[in-house]
Amino acid sequence: MNYRNIVSVSCKRSFVGIFGIAVLSALMLAAVALAGWDAPTNRYNPDGTGMVVAYDSSTCTGNPYIVLYHGTTYKDLTKWSGANGTKFNDLISCIIVGPKTKFEYWQHKDYKGSYGSYNNTSDQIVTKVISGWWDNSISSVKVWKQ
Ligand SMILES: [Ca+2]
Description:
four-stranded antiparallel sheet, three-stranded antiparallel sheet, 9 strands, 1 helix, 2 domains, binds calcium ion, Gamma-B Crystallin, domain 1, alpha+beta
């Protein structure tokens, strides 16, 4: 391999590297842009930073909703309000779980009473209806980024 070929290979590698970084940056921006209120679907979508959005409605739409974050203590939902000021104790009927995010929930405040969990191991956001006995019964929760 002569000098000219070495330079050519080196340039191609650099181009692939820069192109790869550009594609990754675009994908990351798309993921960030995904989080937030989406008017056409009437819902707030979580991102991949360890986020769950809980709704009063069983269709995961409209107000009231509350955005729950990894690292925040929600041991008593009587003290937490949704986007329109409504307290969220015994209200949750549907959750949208961010990618690679785990949601744990308890019947009573201070992580007491019956316990349940949902672990979203996928790279997509997942909508899950809280049905049956658990509907309007959750009083404390935890959110974990996996
Ligand atoms: Ca409800």
